[in-house]
Amino acid sequence: MKYAAITGWGKCMPPAILDNAGLATFLETSDEWITSRTGIKERRISHVPMTLLSHVASARALACAGLDASDLDLIVLGTCSADEQVPNTASGVQFLLGANKAAAMDVNTACTSFLYGLSSATAMVRTGVVRNALVIGVEVISPYMDWSNRNVAVLFGDGAAAVVIQASDEPSGVIAEKLGCAADARHTLRVRGMGTIYGNNQLQLGDTRWDFDGQEIFKRAVHGMSEASQAALQRAGVDSTAVDLAIPHQANLRIIEAVAKRVGIPMDAVYLTVQRYGNMSSATVPVALVEALEEGRVKPGSLLLTPAFGGGLTWCAHVIRWGERVTPLGTSGLSLPDCEQSGVELVQDLIKRKGNTSKGFEAPLPTL
Ligand SMILES: CC(C)(COP(=O)(O)OP(=O)(O)OC[C@H]1O[C@@H](n2cnc3c(N)ncnc32)[C@H](O)[C@@H]1OP(=O)(O)O)[C@@H](O)C(=O)NCCC(=O)NCCS
User: Fold this and answer.
1) What atom in ligand 1 is closest to the CA of residue 310?
2) What band does 352 get if pLDDT is binned at 50, 70 and 90?
3) pLDDT band at 353 (very low <50, low <70, confident <90, very high)
4) Ligand 1, residues 20, 33, 37: which to mutate, most atoms within 8 A of Cβ?
5) How close is the Cα of 151 to the center of ligand 1, in Å?
6) How far is the CA of 357 from the centre of ligand 1 (A)?
7) Which residues are catalytic?
8) Which pLDDT band holds residue 260 (cuts at 50, 70, 90)?
């Protein structure tokens, strides 16, 4: 059996920052509330569609791996906020990269989409279906956000990162994982307005209302991430003391602390980005992985654990054995177009474009 080594990594963060003080200019909230409840200080707002963020992150990951786009057999793009339903975003990335031999698919399991995508691509590499794959975690949530709802608007941000995985004889890459879904709680996180069941409500694209039961999600997240971690570690034949670095999904600092305590991992072995980026849904874990590598927190042979949860409520944990190389083979000159606006200005534009978000929701809302 082959392994699927992670040989390249790259991120692309939109430059416009929306800090807690900026949110408080149009929402009844405060830095004190957001910091004490979530640990979040600021997040990014994208001035470009997700296909462009993904393209830059992917070009950087390919340069890091020393791989040409034409050598890719597969692109898996994890997201729940696609630019368009059809065609999928992965095909846009294939086009921009010139990766014309690659199959291209999107995966949506909300915040766990990158990790479900990593499992899918790893399985295809390990069974010989493909040799070289690109896995992207990207989210541009800001156009879908209900900016009048302080319960959710303070939590999320935009971002992208990608990894290259390649067939290898060395035992590295994902060595064990556990995936699951607590569908009885799928109503606790629902973005109303995205999808065909809303067709009769005459919604404008991007008009959304979020059903969100924060406390129930919190409990389910701690439970799901902890159980998944224990199961994945057991499948890998190790216990929590073997974990060199945990890189969890970053929705809330308190969730991360509770999971670390339950699983038995000290907080100094947990990598955090939640304070600077908030919850970037499927982009969260890959961005954190890239930054952990950039900061030298991932060493040759490190054992990593990546517990996560998302809408659905999906949950998972992966055990990753890092290979020998922790530095990029090359760099890409590709970057985003300049952004002239601040985070607050970008959000104010979105609010204007979305118009009166409540008008589409006068009709009773359907439920599946
Ligand atoms: C959302 C979350 C931060 C709320 O924290 P909490 O400690 O549960 O807070 P509560 O729900 O008890 O809210 C307490 C109060 O703060 C208020 N509040 C909510 N958002 C606020 C904000 N941004 N600023 C100020 N006050 C706010 C509430 O209205 C409530 O007021 P009330 O007591 O007068 O009704 C927390 O539940 C959480 O992180 N849940 C997980 C959700 C998540 O991460 N989802 C992403 C899924 S991938």
Assistant:
1) 48
2) confident
3) confident
4) 37
5) 6
6) 22
7) 111, 249, 279
8) very high
Please tell me whether the overall predicted TM-score, pTM, comes out greater than 0.70 for this model.
yes
- Whether 223 lines ligand 1, by a CB cut-off of 6 Å, is no
Q: How far is the CA of 214 from the centre of ligand 1 (A)?
A: 6
Residue 367 lies in a domain: no
Q: What is the CATH number of the domain that holds 115?
A: 3.40.47.10
For the chain, list the strands marked E by DSSP.
3-12, 16-19, 42-45, 74-78, 103-107, 132-139, 159-168, 173-181, 189-192, 209-212, 245-246, 303-305, 308-310, 314-321
Q: Per the domain annotation, does 366 fall within a domain?
A: no
In a domain, 83, yes or no: yes
Instruction: Give yes or no for residue 310 CB within 6 A of ligand 1.
Output: yes
Nearest CA to ligand 1 atom 12: 215
Instruction: Work out the widest C-alpha separation in the chain, in whole angstroms.
Output: 58
> Pick the residue with more confidence: 86 or 167?
167
Question: Would you report the helix, strand and coil content of the chain in percent, each value rounded to 5?
Answer: 40, 25, 35
DSSP alpha helix (H) spans, 205-271 = 214-236, 253-263
User: Per residue in 184-232, pLDDT tens?
Assistant: 999 999 998 877 776 555 455 567 888 899 999 999 999 999 999 999 9
pLDDT tens, 300-316? 999 999 999 999 999 99
Number of compact structural domains in the chain: 1
Range of the domain at 330: 3-361
Classify residue 269: in a domain, yes or no.
yes
Q: Residue written as tokens 């224990």?
A: 230
